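Issue 218. Parser rejects a valid record. Input:
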Amino acid sequence: MKTVVIVSQDIVVVNLAEGILKRLYNAVIFKGMQPALDYIYNTIPSLVVVDIELDDRSTVGLINDLKDDPIFNQLPFLAVLADHSSLKDLPALFVEDYLWEKDLEQELLTRVNLAILRSERIVEINPLTHLPGNISINRQIEERLERGVSFAFAYADLDFFKPFNDKYGFSRGDEVINITGRIILNVVKNRQQQGSFIGHIGGDDFIFIMDIPLIEETSREIIDTFDRLIPSFYDQEDRDCGFIIAVDRQGNRNQFPIMGISIGITDNRHRQFFHYGELTEVASEMKKHAKKSPGSSYIIDKRLDDDSLKNPSA
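Output the parser choked on:
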């Protein structure tokens, strides 16, 4: 069931909206945008419905700041406006749609359905994690390269995800991918609120972009959090054993350890990149080296342009 966040201090609006949406959506209620932010950052709902006065500059600012973030700029917002509101102030609010309070009962469900349907048609948003996909990822890299700013780029994917998915099924596999996206998003945004970026390439592959001094500690925290949470997705018997029995790519039954996460990191401090493909290729190389280590790990590329591959540092 898709989640719709409802933000309102008006108990009448809350009860009406919740009653209309509860058959089709998981409605989560907040009295203001500030308390709703943590939930939005952690969950990325399908839609946010905001009951707002257009002269409420604090709430308008919070919404606009969120929409200015490349992670959340395609999260749809539906504004519920008081009947006395003046539309001349609406252009200052970055929302996809609005409706008047008097039309709430008749139009809310239709507007919510349409807003979510439009957002799901945007191909660069991953439908599982709601994180930006390849188009946005490539655009973020190219824009940074064109501006000549220094940044770090990390490529992460899961170790032994396929055996887990084969044994426990796609539903539990999707849960693991979803929680991995949440872990990366939360850790990155907690350490760098502005200027960071998280993307979902697809499957169990993720990327994140940050300021260079923050990337290593962030990767450590992602690994620590992942390793602490992921065992809970295994049955107790498998957790006790520390491995599962599954069929490998050659069709043989084999032992596979508890999943880990491998992160390859590079930056443009020591290397000059001209295209996003060059950057992602180097990070992918580092990720492959990280995968050679048992358990979760990260490797940072600290080579100069003419250094050999034997010099990456973890």
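Fixed in the parser; the record now loads. The longest strand covers residues 152-159.
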